[in-house]
């Protein structure tokens, strides 16, 4: 567990080090989007209370225009954020793959004798794809959702306390269920990764040896050995 936390911190530091400007710009945009998301429900309340209930067409039109402008700006910012996230994600993935390739090119022949090539390919492909999802987008999304949840809880407590307590109990149950399913999913992913490496080994051995098999006219024996 401690080793996993250490590796996660190391990875996050690596992401921050290589994307300082992008993270700074993303942080500003995330703050704006969070403020907009918190303000829009209040603005909608004003539209209903002051515009519709009081039947004031001028106030209604003004608030509706402001509402749609904020919504449009929020959508535009989300689009820009997704673009920045994709740049950071691809940049980090490419750099990590290059570092891995450079590292394995310096390893001794003894390493490759004891390590199956399929497992190495699985690390370069599947594991890096999984790492790509642990980027700045996840951190910013958590921060945004946290502040949004705090605001929602505040309004819920003021409106109806018993409903708030019910939501808290349901959230705790969902959290426990999520932990159970996460452990099962992690175990299945590890199993799939192992099987993927074994299949890759078989495919690679088949491709590398097919020419010599055809030439030696041992095709029938070879295929029966690898394809069952």
3D structure, described in words:
The chain has 228 residues and is mainly alpha-helical. It is built from 8 helices and no strands. The chain has helices at residues 2-18, 20-53, 57-105, 109-114, 117-132, 136-159, 161-215, 219-226. The model has no long low-confidence stretch (mean pLDDT 74).
Summarize this, please?
The protein is mostly helical.
Give the topology string: H per helix, E per strand.
HHHHHHHH
Can you tell me the overall shape? elongated
Please, how many domains? 2
Uncertain runs with pLDDT below 50, 5 residues or more? none
Rg, Cα atoms, Å: 27 Å
Total strands? 0
Main β sheet profile: none
Question: Average pLDDT value?
Answer: 74
Span between termini: 39 Å
State the secondary-structure class: mainly alpha
Helix content: over 70%
Strand content: under 5%
């Amino acid at each position: 567990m401690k080793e996993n936390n250490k590796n996660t911190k190391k990875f996050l530091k690596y992401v921050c080090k290589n994307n300082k400007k992008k993270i700074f710009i993303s942080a500003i945009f995330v703050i704006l989007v969070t403020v907009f998301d918190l303000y829009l429900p209040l603005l909608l309340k004003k539209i209903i209370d002051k515009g519709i209930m009081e039947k004031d067409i001028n106030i209604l039109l003004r608030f509706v225009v402001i509402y749609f402008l904020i919504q449009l700006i929020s959508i535009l910012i989300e689009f820009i954020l997704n673009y920045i996230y994709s740049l950071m994600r691809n940049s980090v993935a490419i750099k990590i793959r290059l570092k891995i390739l450079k590292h394995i090119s310096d390893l001794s022949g003894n390493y490759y004798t004891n390590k199956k090539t399929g497992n190495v390919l699985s690390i370069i492909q599947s594991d890096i794809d999984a790492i790509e999802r642990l980027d700045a987008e996840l951190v910013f999304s958590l921060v945004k959702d946290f502040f949004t949840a705090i605001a929602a809880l505040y309004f819920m407590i003021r409106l109806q306390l018993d409903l708030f307590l019910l939501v808290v109990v349901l959230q705790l149950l969902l959290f426990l269920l999520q932990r159970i399913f996460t452990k099962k999913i992690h175990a299945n992913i590890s199993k799939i990764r192992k099987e993927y490496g074994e299949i890759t080994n078989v495919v690679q051995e088949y491709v590398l040896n097919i020419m010599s098999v055809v030439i030696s006219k041992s095709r029938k024996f070879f295929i029966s050995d690898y394809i069952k």
